[in-house]
Amino acid sequence: MSKSSQKARLFQNAPKSSDSSRSGVSTRLFTWFGLNGEIIAHAGRKVATRRGYCTVTQPARDVTLFEHDRTRFFRLLAVFCGGQFVFWTYLAQFAFTGLRDTGGKGDKGRAKAPTTTGLAGMWSFEMNLGSNAWRYGFTLGCLTIGAGIVGLGAVFCRRCVSKVVLHQGGRMVTVCTQSPLGPTRGRTLTVPLNQVACHAHRQESPSFIPLRIKGHRLYFLLDKEGTVNNTRLFDITVGAYRPF
């Protein structure tokens, strides 16, 4: 075979090899761009998801997360506590002024026998309800019970939450408590979000959701009968657990 024929054959085979190399290069480029397109799309979805999460926790306006108006109940509670205080105060006044000492001498120079109590003859002791120890003790006990009932009612009223508001930007939270005078006459606390935490999930609590605010010893109580307007936003902001 002559050299000219060999060159002709090589010249004819050259386009085929170049075409095959071009097809291989194009295939590799297509595969590379396809993989990178999926990676870029996946990364874009992550970024979008992350941005969406941040925008959800940072609302553009004030959002009322929880509300529950129990003004009627706390008015009845106030009436009950007031009645109990009046009753126990009257009983203390009666004990202080009405009890008489029975240990002294009575009329006609006869000594009055002190009141004796016993249980089936096993033990007995003398009891003089008019003595200073019994009189002052009974009076102090009645005043303590009346003041305790009023104090427990006041603490329960100041710890029951009527409204929780997440402010614009998601950094501040306002907690409003109940009041017998009306829903807007209760105590109002505005604190940063990182100082508010729930120590129990709202679905795990049977009757009240315990809300903790940094700097306050007792819990604030959210009634389960109240309305949670945005459950997802509540769970990731106010309802989240944060160690103090």
UniProtKB/TrEMBL annotation:
Spans annotated as Disordered: 1-24
Keywords: Membrane, Transmembrane, Transmembrane helix
Superkingdom to which the source organism belongs: Eukaryota
Coiled-coil region(s): none
Transmembrane segments: 73-91, 133-157
InterPro entries noted in UniProt: Tmem223 (IPR026100), TMEM70/TMEM186/TMEM223 (IPR045325)
Pfam family membership, one: TMEM70
Keyword DNA repair among UniProt keywords: no
Protein name: Transmembrane protein 223
Record lineage: Eukaryota, Metazoa, Chordata, Craniata, Vertebrata
